[in-house]
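Thread title: Can someone regenerate the structure for this chain?

I was given the following input by a collaborator and told the matching structure tokens would be attached. They weren't. Posting the sequence so someone can regenerate them.
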Amino acid sequence: MKDEDQTLLWEPPSVPSAEPRRRARGIAFRVAKAALILFAGYYVFCLVLLVAYRFVPPPSTGVQIQRRVEAVVQGREYTKRREYVSISALSQHVPRAVVAAEDGRFWDHYGFDWVEMRRAREEAAGGGRVRGASTITQQLMKNLFGFTYRNPIRKVYDLALTPAAELILGKRRILELYLNQVEWGAGIYGVEAAAKHHYDGSAKNLSRTRAAGLAALLPNPLRRTPENTGEYRRAILKRMGQRGW
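Best answer:
Regenerated them for you:
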């Protein structure tokens, strides 16, 4: 009788149900699908904007919005100065100085400078400083649709949008947008506003030396000024001279 009671009280070990695992996989799949749709939707939205920007200037950019938000969060005043000018209305020294400073093979590549990327990788592998090798097109995509913080998702968008920008906008329009949208100082966007702020004159009247002085600010426009970048300005002038500019 005792053995019979023990038999009745014994229960087989429970087998974990597969239902929670299936439910978790289902949730993960739906989240991944929603994220993919979101990313793809934003990419298509950016492509539509690129088509528009071929004909009209952007009303604002991702970096400009970022700077305004930063000012609000930090509780400081923010003043935005920006004037859009056609590349044909600029001194010829301005686009030349910027290309010499930022992307020497701009007119020869299709959005990615593989030569410079390889050099940067070899320098880093040999113990040299780690430096970027992004092109003007890549930098424009970051400014239009991204922000200055390092982020792998932003980098993916930069890379994905670069070939499309080369195809949709063309070289001349890319350079014109870059000159008019990137930072040249705190709250200063576009080379016209930069020329007035730093040299108290119009960008159409910039000399070769002053154009190189503005181009020298681009790697770090919030900290650099024409007064503290003399060495880099001379390097840019040398590069311009090597190209017959």
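The CA atoms of residues 48 and 162 lie 14 Å apart.
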